[in-house]
Amino acid sequence: MTLSEIERTVAARFNLAPGAIKSLNRERRVARPRQIAMALARELTGLSLPRIGTYFCRDHTTILHACRRVAKLAAADPDFARTVEGCRELLLRADRFPPSTREAGRA
Questions:
Q1: Is residue 82 in a domain?
Q2: CATH number of the domain where residue 11 is located
Q3: Which of 13, 14, 55, 67 allows an S-S link to 3, with CB 3.0 to 4.6 Å?
């Protein structure tokens, strides 16, 4: 799984342009999906905080804050937890069936 796949999947789930995730926009409608993408990147790729930060044009401490924030919000808000889980499932499903496999199955 790549960081760009995570970025595209989360952006699509929230009806955002993929570039919005990396943007400097601080509106909640953009910042929350960005935090989810960062937290899922940490969880699903095992990459270091600095590497994830470089990809998302953020400092590694921002990635750590996003991970903690997403965990705290998910623990307090079942709707938010379901949203994060839905994104995780989309990513894991896509990872199990790479595009070449999906295309072959349609032939």
A1: yes
A2: 1.10.1750.10
A3: 55
